[in-house]
Amino acid sequence: MAQIIVEAAAQGPVMASPDGLSFWGGVDAATGIVIDAHHPLHGRSLAGAVLLIPTSRGSCTGSGVVLELALGGNAPAALVFREEEDILTLGALIAGRMFAKPLAVLRLGADNWDRLAQAEHAMIERGRLVADDWTLDIAPPPTAALDLTESDRAMLGGAEGEASKLALEVICTMAAGQGASRLTDVTRAHIDGCIYASPANLTFARAMADMGARVRVPTTMNAISVDHAHWRDQGVPPSFGGPAQRLADAYVEMGARPSFTCAPYLLQDAPGLGEMIGWSESNAVIYANSVLGARTVKHPDFMDLFIAITGRAPLSGVYLDEGRAALRAVHVDLPDGHDDALWPLLGWLAGRAAPDRIPLLTGLENTSPTPDDLKALCAAFGTTSAAPMLHVAGVTPEAVGALIPDADAVRITPADLAEAWRQFNAGPAQVDLIAFGSPHFSLSECYALDAALAGRARHADTAVIVTVGQQVLDALAVEGLLTRLEASGVQVVPDICWCSISEPVFPPSAKVLMTNSGKYAHYAPGLSGREVRFGSLADCADAAVTGQARNEPPHWLTI
After folding, report:
1. Per the confidence metrics, is the pTM higher than 0.90?
2. At what angle do helices 87-99 and 62-72 cross, to 10 degrees?
3. Rounded CA gap, 410 and 434, in Å?
4. Main-chain phi, psi angles of 318, to 5 degrees
5. Distance (Å, rounded) from C-alpha 470 to C-alpha 221?
6. pLDDT tens digit at each of 559 positions of the chain
7. In whole angstroms, what is the distance from residue 102 CA to residue 427 CA?
8. What is the rounded distance in angstroms from the CA atom of residue 449 to the CA atom of residue 338?
9. Are strands 104-108 and 2-6 parallel, antiparallel or unpaired?
């Protein structure tokens, strides 16, 4: 099988990796250089290459990075996938359709993908793939006879304006690529594209707002790249703070609610079991599907707005019962005496064990994870897997009967957990910054941090920053907890999160950071350029006071 997904002529040197790649947090949007320190292509430039990866993984913001690379002339010549892929594909589609910067996207069967990966040079033109000494015919882009409603047809005819027409056209194109036969209504949306990952995000949002786009379903917004009300006071340069604020304001102008949180499931009106929603933000999607039992594909940036504008999404993937099945069992040999660091470590390892499919985790039936533990699990899972959900036997609502009869099985051992801890603790013991809130801290996590600090003040040379949503910050103030945290030297910052923070809010002098987040431990080396330490919330609180991270793994990881 060889099929063009997004049409464009292309040629260039072949660059292949057996590992999926998150373009956001994994690729420098300004240069095309791979910055994911854990990826085999780390340090290499993707510009002009025919890039082969099985699929993408990680952040929904990858579509915005693709658009920025295309607009800046640093994009790959072509993207060639072996599995279904939406995030980077959507970025390529928008680059061509809205900004006349076409970028070819191709999907190959496993045998042809493996063969192309051995080639030195490839060219895509006029329905053919030519690589070294072989040629392969390529099928045209997929089409589907979608069963559209009269309202859909009217929207495609321009009855609700140019923005709605464009949005539904793109949705239908993506639906065809996903093999969907019809669309589904969604009750709400969550926008991830409001992070100022690159100028392309603002270019797109401003174009849609100027086109008259308005959301038609309740729509929340992800964390943004600045503290909306205070970035000037924090010393953020106008060259960054201004565009970042204008990006957020463009989505508010289109009717989105300025919730500014990467944890929308912490809001009072979280979605319920079986509810069809249209969310972006990888951790939010995985939590909604896995823990809440709501249903949403991991929609790319830009697609999130199109769904909010139309209230429609392709009926495919985890919107369908069959799309939520677990295809691999991951048995966990649970170490005795574990603490909360188990869950982010386990999520990261589960993603590596199931990088391209939904897993069922077993061996955890006698645990009682809190919502905060599951938040950490889901967020870390999303850094290493492309799957939009996972099941946990005895814990998550759809785990019973989720595993298909012929699923394969793997194990995660205490030795695997110990090795993951070591990978997350490559930096020196002296830490300059403690980073909490990736995803945004909940109110209960803030209480747990206060208890762990027990009135102790932070070390004079170690900054402590907690990122939260505005609703949590308001509760902290009302309940008097904000005063206690600040008395210990903790800075609580709303609106931004660690995946969007920048200097000087991120202390410029910090060389080593410590976090209790598996997600941030994975992304921080590439995003911040700093060395990283990782530990439980209590370990991080102790390091905040002493300025030193522990040198040895916790007792429950000692083998």
Report:
1. yes
2. 40
3. 34
4. -75, 0
5. 12
6. 688 889 999 999 999 999 999 998 899 999 999 999 889 999 999 999 999 999 998 787 889 999 999 999 999 999 999 998 999 999 999 999 999 999 999 999 999 999 999 999 999 988 899 999 899 999 888 776 799 999 999 999 999 999 999 999 999 999 988 889 999 999 999 999 999 989 999 999 999 999 999 999 999 999 999 999 999 999 999 999 999 999 999 999 999 999 999 999 999 999 999 999 999 999 999 999 999 999 999 999 999 999 999 999 999 999 999 999 999 999 999 999 999 999 999 999 999 999 999 999 999 999 999 999 999 999 999 999 999 999 999 999 999 999 999 999 999 999 999 999 999 999 999 999 999 999 999 999 999 999 999 999 999 999 999 999 999 999 999 999 999 999 999 999 999 999 899 999 999 999 999 999 999 999 999 999 999 999 999 999 999 999 999 999 999 998 6
7. 41
8. 18
9. antiparallel
**56, 59, 517, 528: which one is catalytic?**
59
H-run or E-run covering 436: strand 433-436
The first and second tokens of residue 114, run together, are 């493996």
**Is 259 a residue of the active site?**
no
Beta strand 433-436 with 391-392 is: unpaired
